[in-house]
Design brief:
alpha/beta, 2 domains, 12 helices
């Protein structure tokens, strides 16, 4: 029997002939243009770039679809009278123009939030200042190894909103979620992971507190059935337990937990009621470094209720480093050259140096 997504059907009916704005013509919003045009929405697009810098294929599509369009630094001055507004992650919901429209009655959302609200299957979401891409990709590999049909997206992979009609209740959505995507979000994944929280993106966020609160949205809308996986070694994430509604699972490299997952040297152990059992030897993994042992422990914790530990171990042993993360690109005259361009914060750089 074919599954029909009733929430998606209702959304498609709702947007017909409605005024819909798309703010930002980045990767996540571009597929929306085709989708909304097909569903007969009255679309206007906004981008703070000058029109001369917009790729010609995108401009041609906008004109062919007969969309209204506004470009340039002050383009949002024309944001008025919309029913639904899709903002890009970098256009924070605290913008005055967005708040004005929301006060008037517009729905402010993002491609990723609407995906999650209408998704018919289990969602696993990963956020954190460091380690989220590797952890997300590893979780996805473990699930696929166990036979699940998964969709990888969010901050990585393909924008998935336009794939909603294909997603079945038996599938699993695996999402990497940035603070920009989480800010203002009013839905949380079934299984949420925060790898750590350290100062990041403070050139865009108002302050560190705003950044932290955005990260917390990954679990704030869970119910008692939710699962939240937290880094016990990070004070901010450890304290998130106090706000959790569902089950909390900790992982740690620095503490001997009574319950949770610990990294003890190269060994990952599962702890239940002070009884510890070895579940994985890090020497068997291609991934290297203490930070990656934490990522492995996190991925095991996230998939524990869904897969056998043997399938998880097999997937971990085969998993290769994600692009731009300690990629060995050349060895000459006994000197090794690594591509680690993803190390864009001090904590990332230090963790990478330790494992090379």
């Amino acid at each position: 029997m074919n599954f029909e997504n009733q929430k998606l059907n209702e959304f498609n009916e709702y947007i017909k002939f409605r005024k819909v704005a798309i703010i930002g013509l980045g990767v996540s919003n571009l597929p929306l243009m085709d989708y909304l045009h097909e569903k007969k929405a009255r679309v206007s697009v906004f981008d703070e770039r000058e029109s001369s810098t917009i790729p010609s294929n995108i401009m041609n599509k906008i004109k062919n679809y007969e969309f209204q369009y506004y470009f340039g630094k002050n383009c949002l001055e024309n944001l008025n009278g919309f029913d639904l507004i899709f903002r890009s992650p970098s256009c924070l919901p605290t913008r005055y123009e967005l708040q004005k429209e929301e006060d008037r009655g517009a729905i402010i959302t993002t491609e990723i939030e609407m995906l999650m609200k209408m998704c018919p299957c289990k969602i696993i979401g990963v956020t954190g200042s460091d380690g989220k891409t590797t952890t997300t990709s590893l979780i996805n590999s473990i699930l696929q190894k166990s036979g699940y049909n998964t969709y990888l997206g969010g901050n990585i992979g393909t924008p998935l909103f336009t794939k909603l009609s294909e997603i079945k209740p038996t599938d699993i959505l695996v999402l990497e979620l940035s603070s920009f995507q989480l800010m203002g979000m009013e839905i949380s994944p079934d299984i949420a992971i925060i790898t750590n929280i350290t100062p990041n993106h403070l050139n865009i966020h108002k302050d560190y507190e705003e950044y932290i609160e955005a990260k917390k949205n990954i679990f704030k809308y869970q119910n008692e059935n939710g699962i939240l996986i937290l880094n016990y070694d990070n004070e901010i994430t450890r304290n998130c337990e106090k706000e959790a509604k569902g089950k909390v699972i900790f992982f740690s490299r620095q503490h001997k937990l009574d319950n949770g997952f610990i990294v003890d040297g190269k060994i990952i152990k599962e702890c239940e009621d002070r009884i510890r059992k070895h579940i994985f030897n890090g020497e068997e993994a291609i991934l290297r470094g203490e930070h990656n042992l934490e990522n492995i422990a996190t991925a095991i914790a996230a998939t524990k209720s869904l897969v056998s530990i043997e399938d998880a171990k097999d997937a971990i042993k085969e998993f290769k480093p994600v692009e731009h993360r300690i990629e060995l690109v050349r060895e000459k005259n006994e000197v090794k050259w690594y591509n680690d361009s993803a190390s864009s914060s001090p904590t990332r750089t230090l963790s990478r140096i330790k494992c090379i």
